[in-house]
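Researcher: Quick test of sequence recovery. Tokens follow.
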């Protein structure tokens, strides 16, 4: 029986089929993205030429250790392909991301890319988003006001559930961009588009983990092999 690490490795290696010499890549964050990065490093060592934009300091450090060239998005503002993991995805390739805390940079990089490939193990596919707590990146100033506004607006959409401030050790989790993250355990998000619009309208919300209309391909690894999905 394949364990989680081997499934992530399968998905990451399958994504290499879409990487061409000379590409400008957006490189994601998280354990599945790291499996892809290690596989990419092998190809780069063999002569593949790419430049990457890292979505987190952790990803940048791993790429550097594998001699994968990294540039800034300011220097290379248009990318050919972004490859990243997901915490959940549905049949329309709508995603919940941000479990690793890099959702803002991940979304900026995905939006700057011509295509986005999502890599994951098959357990991440769901009928309805929301079982994984939705990360919401917020400004530290006015945190409680923002929290209360999110709770009230979500309730008006019929979404209830605990919303908690993410912590790391004894203090709050701080993103690479200097923000905080709230994790909203809604359980089910039947209308992700409505929730996305509502959250974006709340002052203090920097970004949220609903990635809508960004993924063009999903590569899912399971015991039975690797499946490729398009938005349905």
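Model:
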């Amino acid at each position: 029986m394949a364990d989680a690490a081997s499934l992530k490795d399968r998905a990451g290696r399958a994504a290499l089929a879409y990487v061409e010499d000379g590409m400008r890549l957006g490189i994601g964050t998280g354990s599945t993205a790291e499996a892809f990065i290690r596989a990419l490093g092998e190809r780069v060592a063999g002569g593949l030429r790419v430049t990457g934009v890292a979505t987190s300091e952790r990803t940048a450090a791993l790429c550097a250790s594998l001699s994968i060239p990294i540039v800034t998005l300011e220097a290379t503002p248009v990318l050919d392909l972004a490859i990243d993991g997901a915490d959940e995805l549905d049949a329309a390739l709508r995603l919940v991301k941000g479990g690793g805390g890099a959702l803002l940079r991940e979304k900026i990089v995905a939006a700057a890319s011509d295509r986005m490939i999502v890599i994951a193990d098959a357990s991440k596919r769901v009928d309805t988003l929301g079982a994984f707590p939705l990360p919401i990146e917020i400004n530290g100033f006015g945190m409680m006001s923002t929290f209360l506004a999110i709770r009230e607006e979500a309730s008006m959409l019929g979404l209830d559930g605990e919303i908690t401030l993410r912590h790391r050790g004894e203090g709050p989790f701080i993103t690479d961009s200097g923000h905080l993250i709230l994790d909203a355990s809604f359980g089910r998000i039947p209308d992700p588009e409505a929730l996305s619009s509502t959250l974006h309208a709340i002052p203090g919300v920097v970004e949220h983990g609903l990635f809508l209309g960004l993924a063009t391909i999903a590569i899912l690894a399971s015991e039975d092999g690797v499946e490729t999905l398009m938005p349905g």
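The longest helix spans residues 31-45.
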